[in-house]
Amino acid sequence: MSDKQGIAGLASQLGGSSNGKHPLWNAMGGALGIVETILPGLLFVAVFSFTLDPWLAIWVSVSASVLFTLYRLVRKQAATQALVGLLGVAISAVLALMSNKPEDNFVVGMVTNGVYGTVFLISVAVGWPIIGVVIGLVRSEGTSWRKNHPHKRVYTGVTLLWVAMFALRLGIEYPLYLAGDVAGLATAKLILGLPLYVPVLALTWLIVRSLYREKSSLSEEITVKKSD
Fold this sequence. Notes:
The structure is a single chain. The chain has 228 residues and is mostly helical. The chain has one domain (3-220). The protein is built from ten helices and no strands. The chain has helices at residues 3-12, 23-27, 30-51, 54-74, 80-99, 107-125, 130-138, 149-178, 182-191, 194-227. The longest helix has 34 residues, at 194-227.
């Protein structure tokens, strides 16, 4: 599950969930999305802890991602998320094999966090906080939010919250990478993955939802006054 997919998923369900489940649950891809996000990393940590063999741990992790992708394809479910995840895992494994350094299995993740954090930060610097851009696009509202300065400030703050998440991941994982600490990297990636992502996504949903509730209440108030 990518961070951008999670944001877009929340944006599309600000008005409520169509399947009766909580928008946060849907944005995370449901039970399968959560399991396929956690399990490969968890298997890596477990296998490496018991065998101290980073290569075996890498292959077990890759195999788990392959199985999740095949499962989605066989059941004719949306497999884009699984395919993207599998591609990332495969590239990571290839990098580690080519360099013969198991810690290189985590380079793709660190680069991804660095790129996301930089893009989000630049979006704030140029006055186009990416959270507002994504929500505006998904909800077909364009850039009207930029004319509402309080809303723009909120989107800026929420975007910076995501920047902080990416920076925290990179700040912890990069020193471990330089030290060649494979076990530390695997554990940090697991802890800084879904356990950190979910609270940030939830806080984003709560803050943005409050804006839309405020907007809805204002519209209802104007309608009542017109009817009077």
